[in-house]
């Protein structure tokens, strides 16, 4: 024991990072996937330069890890490594020498320990944010060709992780406007743009789905003060949970004229303010600000190193914070029915849930409605390819682009959704999560891979008039299965125009789509628009072989109804 304690005292850094990584690897292996993690695992099955929701970094990391371990550990392997590496980078950027305080801060921040294992884009983004600041400091010290190119590479990697990385770049520039006058900074920027160009090209060729989703397809409810309050409380908990208030206070109190520290201060403050203002447009997820934890830790550590009175709070609150983390780790890795059944639980009973559905399906391909999570979980835990059919009442996802739909055309499939209970000959499926229904359908047909783009992309319709507008059709590579490419002129398709006010479906209007020439369509509504004047959202859907079910085949389109 004395040898062990002596080794810890002599090599605290080695012991800290070794234990941190080992514990997270064990946690990664023993905890079932969250819904989004399973979805990103499906990303990794289809390598590409981009995806509907995010850039491709998360898919690359999962694919690399899953090639080593074919389980949850493989999915999270490089997240755990990046999490430890992020802390290592932060420690090497500290503005004051006090390793003991740094370890206490890190151990008190639950999100770094628990969230650090999750296979989500925030983890590589946080790592590359830390690497960006690390490289930026080197760039300030020595702005030669090599440092400029490396800075550009890191900027590209940050953007390939998550689009939020652009905020770090812009806020750093705002903190040091003189960068705009230096050729080295321009070289770094051009390097980043060139390396990021393949993803921009992917967005262009897919009609910018990520931009369309965030600007048009996300429902923006009327502002409620709870959005702002939840955001503020969420940031305090995210930075702690017990010492979050202290870290935010300490980082805010820190003052400096140093160029590097100013970049940290601008980035942290700007990140928090940007998303605070964003609450005016809708609910903001707490994890969107995770990259701000990098400058937060460095700045808070610097101020607390000068204020022993306040630093004592970190040491006092570290033990209860660690106890809370240990309890949460235990909950994640074990199944306690009295707890897991009380609320939505993504980390337990996934294997038995998937097995129950597979048994009910009799081995048929399984199709889910309006969920990118459930088919992804089913695929991961059974090994059987699944598909998500997104209807007009939901939103598009990357399942609109992947080829699974073409592989199911004309086949016998098992459709799983609660509304299947309304069909005759449906099957009740009892699972450990909750009961649902399934039904067998022969000769399955759906067309969510076909995307329709009206021209112009904002519809304007007079009240009481028939809607007539043109559009271009953009089949996915497997669209030949649908017959659009070979369809004769004047072919009539069964399509619906669904009109929404917020999330409420106000009107479903059948339309006739005439394929005139090439990929051009002319849409004519079969009924007049009898809705009050105002702003709405519209979606076009193509009928499927399932009665009354239409796939979503457009982004949410702005619709103006006038008198």
Automatic annotation (TrEMBL):
Pfam families: PMT_2 (PF13231). Its main location: membrane. Signal peptide: none annotated. GO terms for molecular function: pentosyltransferase activity. One of its GO terms (biological process) is lipopolysaccharide biosynthetic process. It is a multi-pass membrane protein. One of its GO terms (cellular component) is plasma membrane. It comes from the Bacteria. It is found in: Cell membrane. Residues 53-202 form the Glycosyltransferase RgtA/B/C/D-like domain. The chain crosses the membrane at residues 102-134, 149-173, 185-204, 231-251, 263-280, 286-304, 313-332. Keywords: Cell membrane, Glycosyltransferase, Membrane, Transferase, Transmembrane, Transmembrane helix. This is Glycosyltransferase RgtA/B/C/D-like domain-containing protein.
